[in-house]
């Protein structure tokens, strides 16, 4: 009888212990994050459609409209060259220099003035993606604070927002021009969090660039990747909190 009693006690102890461990596992497991207080938007390609620049860039490059993505990625690449080397040129200057590089590498003759003409005016007058205005209106109506964080200059993004009719949707616009450190350097995200006076997990970075959400995620922000056509996540980075096809889907997600 004593042996049976001991076995029963042992079995009961194991069951209780397992329940407690399971309970702790649930309690300490991953929890759903609270909704963010502020949404931080990237601008070019996330809100504004770069497709319209195919004509001007293609004309400058002898009809090679297919080189638009290469030009933009070259511009992003060399903005980080500036940051890691402790140098700084504004995004427009880097854009012109990058177009000259793309032309040279493809045996196309182009002058600095031609490159500037192909970039500056078209870049400042980009149209918003079709979902942007209605999506931003929904998010604003839901009570979210909306701000932008861009690698473009302060003057440049102001001109872009005025041209695209986006000024009224945003509470503030931030440019890395003020600190001369390009995204996705973590210091760029840390800087804007200080300006907003919010903790990293109280803000969400929204971008159509895998490199942008990767940087923001490493800085501790919540992140949403907008899967615009031709855009992909960086497979080696931490996964974003959300992946959506457009701002309508984001608004529904955060409702």
Characterise the protein shown here:
Helix content is 50%, strand content 11%. With 255 residues, the chain is α/β, with parallel strands linked by helices. The chain has a 6-stranded parallel sheet, sandwiched between helices. Helix 4 (91-105) packs across helix 5 (112-124).
Shape from CA axes? Answer: globular
Largest sheet report: 6 strands, parallel
**Chain-averaged pLDDT:** 89
Determine the N-to-C terminus distance.
62 Å
What key phrases describe this protein's structure?
alpha/beta; 11% strand
Helix and strand topology:
Blueprint: H1 2-28, E1 38-41, H2 54-60, H3 68-84, H4 91-105, H5 112-124, H6 132-141, E2 145-150, H7 154-164, E3 172-175, H8 186-196, E4 203-207, H9 210-218, E5 222-226, E6 242-244, H10 247-253
Parallel strand pairs: 1-2, 1-4, 2-3, 4-5, 5-6
Helix pairs in contact: 2-5, 3-4, 4-5, 6-10
What's the short version?
With 255 residues, the chain is α/β, with parallel strands linked by helices. The protein is built from 10 helices and 6 strands. It has a 6-stranded parallel beta sheet, sandwiched between helices.
